[in-house]
Amino acid sequence: MKVLRDAVHNVLSIDPSLRPLASDGVPGGLVEFPRTEKREFIIIGDLHANVKNLNAILKDDDTMVKVKQDKAVLLFLGDAVHNDKTGFTYAMDSSIEIMDIILGLINEFPGNVLYLLGNHDSFAPELSKLGIQQGLLYREALLKARGKQYVALMQEFFDALPLFIIHRYFLAVHAGPARGGLTRNELVNVRHFENYLWQLTWNRLNETRSTPSMKEYGPEDLDEARRLLGCPKNIPVFVGHNPMWKWGDEDSIWIDALGCHDHVILYATLDTKCPYVSVHGSSAYTVKYADLELKARHFVLDND
Ligand SMILES: [Mn+2]
């Protein structure tokens, strides 16, 4: 309980010079880093309760050493919970476990760990995967494991999360831009615009290339989002949420899908490959792969 309470406090205590307050005085939806920001940003896509992949990323390439030394920031794109693999959509223990790890990271390094709100970071009944209401199941599991107060506090945690990052070298959001983009003021006050809140956490790429509906975005919306924020035309936009499995499951990063430019969809749920992104010193980001053998090797050694 204390871990979660501290995490809510830490998320709400992000420096207001980085995270402007909304009009009601509550920390807003936008975190914007100054142009002088020098740290490496390690961007992690949807984990969907894949604890192994999270640990692999944290161990890869001295990630945690850099975070401890204030040389790197971990940026989670949301949706760390709810295993999305067929046959496991009922399983909620891994969701509780992965949030324990992330909440611990937020508390240990509040200035170096950011978690953006995803559509799965919710107890909402409309969250359903293969007909299974994962939001409700997660709530039930938490209720059983941790009690009523913990569930209420987790809702506070969801409500405290920022949704959008502006950095000199990139933009990041869980699902994608809102149709036609949003201004800074709208991003800061996004919790007052239910429709925008929904779009930033649920929007999908328009795959048919027809006129997009209000639930879809395309290359022009990415361009409008960049323009409204005064960003360079080619600034990369990192999102999770829209895996393109139909193009294969050899990898879980999709760059410039469906006619978009400087657009990266990032997922971290595969058992075979675990991509993540590093941004350091320029918009020329690096795609890295965490070593998924690491844990298996340790396991063997531990059992010797
Ligand atoms: Mn999502």
Q: What's the gist of this structure?
A:
The chain has 304 residues and is an alpha/beta fold. The chain has helices spanning 2-12, 51-59, 63-68, 93-108, 134-146, 148-160, 184-188, 194-202, 219-228, 293-302, and strands spanning 30-32, 40-44, 72-76, 113-115, 128-129, 132-133, 164-167, 170-173, 204-205, 216-217, 237-239, 253-255, 263-266, 275-279, 286-289.
Number of strand elements: 15
* N-to-C CA distance: 37 Å
- Integer tally of domains: 1
Q: Count up the helices.
A: 10
Rough shape?
A: globular
Annotated CATH homologous superfamily: Metallo-dependent phosphatases
Largest sheet: 6 strands, mixed
- CATH architectural arrangement: 4-Layer Sandwich
Major sheet strand order? 1-7-8-11-13-12
Small molecules bound: manganese (II) ion
Output the CATH class name: Alpha Beta
